[in-house]
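User: I want to check something. If I give you two sequences, will you return the structure for each one separately, not as a complex?

Assistant: Yes, each is folded on its own. Here is the first sequence with its structure:
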Amino acid sequence: MKLRNELNSVSGAVVKRINDLLVQKEMTLYRLERNADILHGTMSSIMRGKTKTIALSTVILIARGFGMSLQEFLSDPLFDYGNLDV
């Protein structure tokens, strides 16, 4: 049996991907919120792990906020099926 790890959850992988892209693109979380048209409270809940399930529509907005397609956002090994507890 695999121990559940927050990074192995879909929401944990999304948070890690966001953090990695913020560093890579030298972007602030505030700028991402503005670009993605996501409320600060919503993004804060995601980033603090309070949101356990993230809607696909929200992930699409986040990807757009980074100026990338959903496919580009999800093209990280974090999202490989074998790396996630689903």
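And separately, the second sequence with its own structure:
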Amino acid sequence: MATAVYADIAKQVISLLNAQATTTAYPASAIDIGDDRRNSGELKEAIIESDLEAQVAILETPGNGFRVNYLAVAVLGPITGNPQTAKLPERIGPISRVEIKVNTADTVWIAGEQCPLNEIQEMISNAAVFQGTAHDAAGSPLGGYYFIDEMSDHVTWTGNSIRVHYAAPPTADRVTPGLFSPDVYSPFLVARSLARLLKHGDNPAFMEWYSRQADQLMMLIRKGEIVLPNVEPLIRQAA
């Protein structure tokens, strides 16, 4: 996945800001902010925060095709006193995939199958009820089931070990600076950054123009769209 480039986003934002600072129609040719009420640090924070917002929207949307690029895998250790229950990792959005090794000697993770908690507990404590071997014995038909308790954020399973694929919380690179959102979401980063840079004394209609576009682009991201339309600049004629 090609990610958005900070320098490219910054140039677009600056150009649009300068179009407001003067009566020149977009695009302005300046490469630096032409308004001394803003500085490069504010610009950086606006873009970084917009990048984080886009990432969170992707992680919260299971149908977004870019979500797979943010997935991490964790083998879970059991909580104290319960060898078949583990705490789920910190994440955004639902668990994407649960995999289980039925027996300690297994080398292959199988896709877990959801099952009611009471049945899992019965399989663990009383395999004979299901006419099967122990849930974690080699080749046991009772292995490979799991239940996620959303209230406690715990997962209980049958089998030997469990791992989950989940969307890890986003990170921010404020040093380089660097962005992590897909480059095709650059229009959103530009529009939302402009909205974040609103200050007293600005033309409200100018900033609202980009704020509305950012909201519309965010709706597309949350719908799982993988291509966004370009930002429509506000053309301002000389007075």
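Because they were folded independently, the notes below concern the second chain alone. Confidence is low (pLDDT under 50) at residues 22-31. The longest helix spans residues 40-59.
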